[in-house]
Amino acid sequence: MLKMRKVNLARSAGAVMLGMAIAMTGSLAQAGARDQAKRMYDRIAGVPPTEAELNAMMAIMDADNDDVTDSDAAAQAAAELALDSSGFYNVTLKNMATPWTNEEQTLFADLNDFTATVIGLVRDGDDFRKVLYDDVIYVGAIGGISPYSNDSNDHYVELEASGENLGDPAVLERRTQSSVTALDSAATAGVMTTRAAAKAFFVAGTNRAMFRFTMMNFMCRDLEQVQDTSRTPDRIRQDVSRSPGGDSRIFLNRCVGCHSGMDPLAQAFAYYNWTGEEGTEAGRLQYTANSVQPKYLINADNFRYGYATPNDNWDNYWREGPNSVLGWNATPFTGNTGSGSGAKSMGAELAHSDAFAECQVKKVFTTVCLHEPTTSADHAQVSSMVSNLEASNYNLQTAFVDAAAYCRGD
Ligand code: HEC
User: Fold this and answer.
1) How far is CA 73 from CA 38, 53, 297, in A?
2) Minimal CA–CA distance to 133: which of 72, 71, 185, 179?
3) Dist CA 331 CA 131 (whole Å)
4) Can you give the residue ranges of every domain in the chain?
């Protein structure tokens, strides 16, 4: 069906050696080639292969019928057959991305503009870093369903109910987000400015939730893991008490750890809001250009000398100190400076880090191998998958294929 993908099948010598090492442990020998093919397909597509699909995979993986497979051929079989299945898009990718779209992190939720955009970016083999900053959205292209609406998710509920293959561009098509939602193109920031994300993370509160969940879902780190009390607290907002419970040491030893780095980054969202009430379906994303949302200035009396947000300028204090290990890089918007204005450049700041690449790979590994990377061989595999992801210009299909080949024996 689709012939648009460009999976880079060139494998590093390291990956080949790793494959040999696994073969020598005997785990691959126990699972015959046919079982391996079945398992790879099942894990990528979420359903077993048909007999014809299985035979087609075997023709690639075990061309000489000796019941021995190597990683390259296995990866190629996975790319040509399993990645072409509707199950990969409608089930596996949807289930992987759905927990990122709600605070409960449940996968039992309808398709929405966030999940559809993740599915589309992967399908088209696009640079997956765009998920946090591009002017992109994927919408249904089939007839007989409600049009996209800023005020409801019906379009995606009906698209999903149609059962059509989201891997088909005639079913799910790429559009610019600005043309679909009418948000200013400069204000779009990938999935962060979708309706689903806004409803989940710009609702009520102080917009720090959007930052926290983006860190969890795309950097694989909750804020507990990035706490650093050695950063300057000069941008912590007024709502954070400087002496919680009357004790300024708590502020310095605890609150500063998250808020000194988080508050200047979450400032990027200063012009966004969700109009609806928490726990209801109604509402839409609101963007007030050059005008700071009132939620940034609430509870100013908690500490009047705190930072009063004047604009959407953000700074990444975590480029220095212990969080420099996240591997910050140059971005298309800000170069190497770690500062900018608005959600788009801040999204690129996160997406162009080493932590982002490693996080995507780990999520794919866990999805396909059905366990987190634990052994030293698993961690070596993750490193090789990160290298392959970068070499493929962040085509996430590469990671699925690599993971499927790696885990085919267990
Ligand atoms: C582990 C990281 C972390 C630490 C430590 C931390 N905060 Fe926060 N804080 C957050 C996050 C994340 C939010 C946003 C919560 C949300 O909306 O989901 C937040 C929100 C807030 C808010 C806004 C009100 C709200 O609930 O949204 C205030 C006020 C606040 N924190 C004060 C403090 C104080 C005072 C301390 C120290 C006692 C502290 N925080 C320590 C991460 C942290």
Assistant:
1) 14, 15, 58
2) 185
3) 14
4) 13-84+355-406, 94-187, 206-352
pLDDT digits (tens, 9 = 90+) for 241-279: 999 999 999 999 999 999 999 999 999 999 999 999 999
Q: Is the CB of 155 under 6 A from ligand 1?
A: no
**Token output for 263:** 């508050």
Cβ(212) to ligand 1 under 6 A? yes
R_g over Cα of the chain? 23
Residues 6+ apart with CB under 8 A from 379: 373
> What b/e sequence results for 326-338 when a residue is b if at least 16 CB atoms lie within 10 Å of its CB, and e otherwise?
bebeebebbeeeb
Confidence of residue 31 (pLDDT cuts 50, 70, 90): low
- Sign of the C-alpha dihedral computed for residues 214, 216, 219 and 224 taken in this order: positive
Collapsing DSSP states into helix, strand and coil, what is residue 377? helix
Query: What atom in ligand 1 is closest to the CA of residue 222?
Result: 1
284 lines ligand 1 (CB under 6 A): no
